[in-house]
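The instructor's notes for this session suggest beginning with a concrete chain rather than abstract definitions. Hand out the sequence below and ask the class to guess, before any prediction is shown, which regions might be ordered.
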Amino acid sequence: MPASAVEQNRIALPPGYTREGDLYVFKGEQPAAPPAAKAAGESRQQGLPGLEGLAKSPYGTPDDGAGGTLFSAKKLTQDDVEEESRRKAASSIQSKVDAEYLAAVEAGDMETAQRMVDEAAKAAGIATEPNVADVFVIEESGGRWFINRVSTPVGVRNKGKPFPTRDAAEARAVEMMPDEIKRWRLDSSRREREAARAALQRNSDVDDIAELNMPVDRDPVDGGDMAAMPGDVENRVVWGVKRGQDILPNALDQIGVEGDNPNVRGLHVGDPDYWRKRLNKDYGRSGGRTINIRIAEGDRLVTDRQYMTDPDTGEKADAAVLLTARKVLKYGLDWVFDGETFKEDLAPSRKVVTGETGAVSTPATAGRVGSSPTGASKSL
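After discussion, reveal the predicted structure:
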């Protein structure tokens, strides 16, 4: 049948006709939609639940007050039903807990309120300071009462000092808690630092140089329990350095560090009080000032090979070398004078200072001054 005639005369063709080019061709009637699909379609059009078990679409819900609520044809699984039940139960429990917490606060019962906070934190996996019940268990044996650690196996409990009553044992356990909390804080701090150290961004160039030298106890990677971390500071004594200037760390061959890598530089750091007195005595330098250098990720701390022991006392003072990939230490960001606060929004400085001598120089020549004096003492 000509398509032009159909369209000009607006002829309503029966089902089965399909346009092909300039003609409408009869292809046969289309099969009817299955009852379930039809019912689902009607449900979507009418905004009614329709079929039991159909999952709601994100475009609407029966109780949102919006017209034309949609439903998807995804069947709800048993896991979906159980998850929804858990969500509703958790919401109900949380509402009850919130009400109880507010009631405790309004009543001035801060002990109950704190206990609820601690319980919620523990349930969420957040570490909280232990209480008596977390550390000790009070048990009776042979008519006497004993304080046992929770971690002590049952078979070896009740071997310590006996108490005549449970109240006496509990009172003593409470007295012991400050030391337990102090120990817990130290252990927690150690664990946090270990986790932070494991997540540190490393610099392979700096690490390669550090491997050729001996790390000090506060080295961020191979140091002890209280090793330095990014954000911690190291001290250094300087002369002629002014606020706002930048400091260029030294090339490795200027500070006696084993290894050679142009991408790694270093600065001597250590006890500023000792080095101020030592350098004043050896070289007549007075008026030195202490600066704080902030450790960055990738930095390492190794032994100062140029310094052995104090020539007067024979004792070794605190001296180390800070290895870093930073070419310039920016004032306010990387270093400040002792007593100042680090800031990150200071304007760029116009001058730079050599790491070793404190003499003002241009960026092209800074950091190329000769190495520090050898022997027992040196320029810090």
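Then share the key points. The two ends are 101 Å apart (CA to CA). The first strand starts at residue 17 and ends at 20.
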